[in-house]
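Input sequence (197 aa), recorded before submission:
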Amino acid sequence: MSEETNERPEKAIEEAVETTVEAAREAAANTKKAAAEAIQSSRKAASKAAATSKKAAGKAAADTKKAVSKAAADTKKAADKAAKTTKKAVGKAAGTTRKAAKEAAESVEEAVSKSPVGEALDEFLDHQRKAAEEAGKALQSLIPEGVRSHGKSAVEEMIEGYRSLFNSILDEVEATVKKVVPGGDKKEAAGQEKPEA
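Predicted structure, token format:
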């Protein structure tokens, strides 16, 4: 991966953190300002209430409640804005990170597909196969033609000998089964008649 690709997620994260901190500062300033206004308004209302009648005290309480409600609303609004900004920045960072990872994976795949190791291995195996074929031909040329032809005939005769042996054993087993199994001859006669019919 390039250095620029590595910096993209970090930059996006830094931007998200800066945006979050900025929104939190703004929310704190708004809260502080609203609280200061509420305190000032409360002091005024309390002074007025002490100096005036019950009506003035009621108005001061209403002003205090209004100021606190406003401060709460401002705080909620700033917090919502900070959360939204943070979510947006994190989403952007995640997208940038995904894109960088995809680009890295593609570059690795491309590098592996262009690797000379695969071609070298194929070439090595091809040379080994040819070497084995040539070694077989060399060994074959060491054996005289007469030995090869007589050896082939000997193997064929050996196979025929085993075939005769197995066939005679099968015939003996079949004859023994016919003697031991009651009605074995009848089953054979019935079996021979069916193909003819």
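Checked by second reader. Helices lie at 3-51, 54-113, 116-142, 145-180, 184-196.
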